Amino acid sequence: MRIPSQFDDDNLYRKKIPRGESVKTFRRLIRLALGLALVVVVMLQAAKPAVYRPFFGHLPAKSGGAAASLPSAFAERTPVSTGGNAKAGQTQYSPKDGQIANQLILQLSRQEQVSWTVTLSRSLRGLKIEKIPDAIAATAQKIKFDPDLSSAKRAEWEFAVQDLAGNMPAPEKDPEKDPKYGLPQKNALLAALDEAAANRVIDGSVWRSDDFDSFYRALDSASQLPDSGTATVGALPLLQQPDVFLNQMVTIHGNVALVENIKAPENPYGIQDYWQLWIKPAEGADRPIVAVVPDVPRSVSEQAGTQIAATEGAQISVVGKFLKRLAYKSGAGADLAPVVIGRITYAPFAEGEQTTRPTANETNVSTSKFWLIASISCVGGVGLAILLMWRTSVLAKQSRKLRKAHRQDPEEFLKGLGEQSPTGPSVAEQEHS
After folding, report:
1. What are the residues whose beta carbons fall under 8 Å from the beta carbon of 328, sequence distance 6 or more?
2. Are 324 and 241 in a shared domain?
3. Region 142-153: what's the mean pLDDT?
4. Which of 40, 130, 270, 290 lies 20 to 30 Å from 283 when distance is taken between CA atoms?
5. CB of 185 within 8 A of CB of 192?
6. Domain containing 285 — which CATH number?
7. Domain C-terminal end among 165, 199, 233
8. Is the confidence at residue 176, as pLDDT, over 70?
């Protein structure tokens, strides 16, 4: 409670002594330091991709690191789609060709479909096929086309099938003049074969023999997958929305918890072994994701056969095809884990491993970006501090003006008290004497 003065209605507390300029400068420095510290904290948080993933799941994943030196990263990319989820526009075939392809594969047995898939996928990728199986040539002679098919369309399909079988007929249209002659039909046939193999996969079960047609097909074509451009998802969307993501290309991030090198049984693709990785998702879900990849960098292979905490494992990014939800036995009982078959697009370097040197162009761009961001941050921090100081000064001046405006002047008789001498006699005493 303030005690008012009887002379000028001011309080009897001691007034604050104005501080010197050194104190004001010290306060400015403190405010500037706090502003810069705030900017640095915001920049560090903004640099973490995990901050944006809950809102922007489609952000591209970082790629490179030790994964850039893997054999699967050096494979030549072809525009031919390697998954059963390709659209007609991406594979450049018409809906009519897709219908014809679906009718043709119904005439093939499961074993024949697998043989055709192996030969056709490698032929479209430009890989050399030493010997085409005799069963393909025999089956190609037995295939029957719809009698209502036009002669031009029939000629294209016959050329595509016979070319796959190793026979080179003389079509109505010279393929040497048009290198893409029969290519849409081959793409449509491969997409239909991939879809048939994917339909044989049973979701929510353990590994079955019917699963491995699509399994090895996805593993064989893993090197054709792009580094970016696919949706980034976590474990929960894959588990709760399988109809949306099954047979789709996705990107996953997380820490490797368990590494297994598995020897593959005899298969049509000639795959001898592969790596099975149990990954703890980066978004924090306590549900693992199983990634199957053809090769891994040293930072990941060193974890094979060791039990480590999931947070201490190598942080990797994997792009691949979501095949199924695998049933497995966990500590809580029966559970499901999504299976993604593809390749590693990012992995850290192992201790002592030589990193790849960036080009001069990349170095200049990175340096210029760093200094640009640093300059903008410094200017923004200083500007914010100056704005706060100016605002505080304006508010202080307004407060002083308000106090002076409401302060009442002392009365006239109180002013005269100070002018009288305290030792001299008063006028009344002089008259009395």
Report:
1. 206, 334, 335, 336, 337
2. yes
3. 88
4. 40
5. no
6. 2.40.50
7. 199
8. no
Q: How confident is the model at residue 88, as a pLDDT? A: 38
Q: How far is CA 92 from CA 27, 86, 168, 326, in A?
A: 68, 10, 23, 33
pLDDT digits (tens, 9 = 90+) for 84-99: 444 433 457 888 999 9
pLDDT recorded at residue 359: 47
| Residues whose CB is less than 8 angstroms from the CB of residue 297 and which lie 6 or more positions away in sequence, other chains included | 65, 66, 67, 69, 70, 344, 347, 349, 350
Kindly give the pairing relationship between strand 64-65 and strand 289-293: unpaired
Consecutive H or E run containing 42: helix 21-46
Tokens of 72: 């699967």
The residue range of the domain holding 129 is 87-199
Domain termination site, one of 199, 225, 243: 199
By percentage, how much of the chain surpasses pLDDT 70?
A: 71
How many structural domains compose the chain?
Answer: 2
Identify the sign of the CA torsion 203, 321, 332, 274: positive
Question: What is the DSSP track for 370-393?
Answer: HHHHHHHHHHHHHHHHHHHHHHHH
The Cα–Cα gap between 244 and 283 comes to 20
Q: Quick one: pLDDT at residue 166?
A: 77
Q: Global pTM?
A: 0.66
Asked if residue 184 and residue 107 are part of one domain, the reply reads yes
- Select from 233, 269, 277 the least CA-distant residue to 253: 233
pLDDT score of 407: 66
